[in-house]
Specification:
The strands form four sheets. The protein has a seven-stranded mixed sheet, sandwiched between helices. It contains 14 helices and 17 strands. Strand 13 and strand 14 form a beta hairpin. The protein has two domains: 127 residues, Aspartate Aminotransferase, domain 1 (Alpha-Beta Complex); 274 residues, Aspartate Aminotransferase, domain 2, CATH 3.40.640.10. It is of the alpha/beta class and 449 residues long. The mean pLDDT is 97. It binds pyridoxal-5'-phosphate (PLP). The site of pyridoxal-5'-phosphate has 14 residues, from helix 5.
């Protein structure tokens, strides 16, 4: 199909996510034809670094031969089968492997197919666990302002990115939101580390207020992704986990974006020495190749679901593609690569270089804050560095950054007023230097005045 025709058909039939479709004719989508390693290639053969890991999921680079082979082999043997009353080797091996690498105590694995379902499962399991224990009053959730856990109704109910929720408020269930540990815009006007993460006191207050009605606290550990790539100190997470324990509620950690080495440890919560009651995984689980997700929990939670089939303790939840064998095979191959290529160590080794490269842009006009963790680096753009007035997400300069990025071989997608790199863990030192060079060029050019 010729390129124009392709685009015309796209506009006629496709409805793209998080996209104002009326603007697409003037600002058409990039026509990606293929991908390899760190690069996306458009229909004209132009090459772009996938600088946001295709929405934060690519780990080992696109089309890694080991994952491709594993997927092809699995396709030939068993493409799909339901997972109720049936099991298969890829799911058995993957569940055991995840339990072995997960933070302590997370021995039970429930598979689904995307980040939102991984979170929905955790919310529902927490709720039903309390019910199984005869604690029906524990139905509430505490979450963060600017937190993001997905787009299904339950996930939205515990998220805090206002723009994504506005239209759906009438159908969301109420949850207690506490201010995010957002150091650049500290709700208490304090500075870390002097503050000792005292903003966590708001979580304590919410837990006190909710008392026996709270089922769980849900958090993205160390990095609030969609909320603006807000990085917060492990101390906050450690203290939040201790509060959840003290108040006797579950802790749900959503590592959909942070899992699998992105932050410099296999799971971000390791940096705070925290082990949750529920761990939600997706995105990097298959290195962004095949949709798959997992919700891990403890034997303690799991055991509350055991009983008479008519006793109301069965977990009535499942998806058609639960534990899809091809997804499991991709995940197993990805985990092999983690071991063979020492991916997490490499991220930890390269993270300071990424941070230094981003910090070098701090003096540019409009750059209010520079922050990052692992393979993530973000610049928050402001109208005025003194007042920190945010640049509106619709400011023309943000579109210019995207366009200039493409011109310089970088695929970027600013999040509101935050411009960021979210790089595949497979990035090499050489590629990282090149990406930083280009990123600096984009920003210097777009923010020059
Ligand atoms: C932390 C977090 N949780 C959940 C999700 C939802 O995942 P999905 O888009 O696969 O439903 C995302 C997606 O960006 C995420 O960043």
């Amino acid at each position: 199909m010729d390129r124009k025709e392709w685009l015309r058909k796209d506009l006629r039939h496709n409805w793209h996510p998080y996209t104002q479709m009326s603007a697409l004719a003037a600002d058409p989508p990039l026509q990606i034809d293929r991908a390899e390693g760190l690069f996306l290639f458009d229909a004209d053969g132009n090459r772009y670094y996938d600088a946001i890991s295709s929405w934060w999921c690519v780990v080992h680079g696109h089309g890694h031969p080991r994952i491709r082979e594993a997927v092809a082999r699995q396709m030939e043997r068993l493409d799909h089968v339901l997972f109720a009353g049936v099991t298969h080797e890829p799911a058995v091996r993957l569940a055991a492997r995840l339990a072995a690498i997960a933070p302590e105590g997370l021995s039970r694995v429930f598979f689904s197919d995307n980040g939102s379902t991984a979170v929905e499962v955790a919310l529902k399991m927490s709720l039903q666990c309390w019910r199984n224990l005869g604690r029906e009053e524990r139905t509430g959730f505490v979450c963060l302002d600017r937190g993001y856990h997905g787009d299904t109704t339950g996930c939205m109910s515990v998220s805090g990115v206002e723009a994504f929720l506005r239209a759906f408020r009438p159908i969301l269930f109420p949850a207690r939101r506490v201010p995010a540990p957002y150091c650049y815009r500290c709700p208490e006007g304090k500075t870390y580390p002097e503050c000792a993460a005292s903003c966590v006191d708001a979580l304590d207050a919410a837990l006190r207020e909710g008392g026996e009605t709270i089922a769980a606290v849900i958090l993205e550990p160390l990095l609030l992704g969609a909320g603006g790539m807000i990085v917060y100190p492990p101390e906050y997470l450690a203290r939040a986990a201790a509060l959840a324990r003290r108040h006797g509620v579950h802790l749900i950690l959503d590592e959909v974006a942070t899992g699998f080495g992105r932050t410099g440890t296999m799971f971000a919560c390791e940096q705070a020495g925290v082990s949750p009651d529920f761990l939600c995984l997706s995105k990097g689980l298959t290195s962004g190749t095949v949709p798959l997700a997992a919700t891990l929990t403890t034997a303690e939670v799991y055991n509350t679901f055991l009983g008479d089939p008519d006793g109301g303790k069965t977990f009535y939840h499942g998806h058609t593609f639960t534990a899809n064998p091809v997804g499991c095979a991709a995940a197993l191959a990805s985990l092999d690569l983690f071991e063979e290529e020492e991916v997490v160590d490499r991220v930890a080794r390269l993270a300071p270089r990424l941070a230094e490269g981003a910090r070098a842009l701090a003096e540019l006009p409009m750059v209010g804050d520079v922050r990052g963790i692992g393979m993530v680096a973000a610049l928050e753009l402001v109208r005025d560095k003194g007042t920190k007035e945010p640049l509106p997400g619709t400011a023309p300069v943000l579109r210019e950054i995207r366009t200039e990025g493409l011109r310089r071989g970088l695929f970027l997608r600013p999040l509101g007023n935050v411009v960021y790199l979210f790089l595949p863990q497979a990035v090499t030192r050489e590629a990282l230097d090149d990406i930083l060079d280009r990123f600096g060029g984009v920003l210097r050019s777009a923010l020059k005045s």
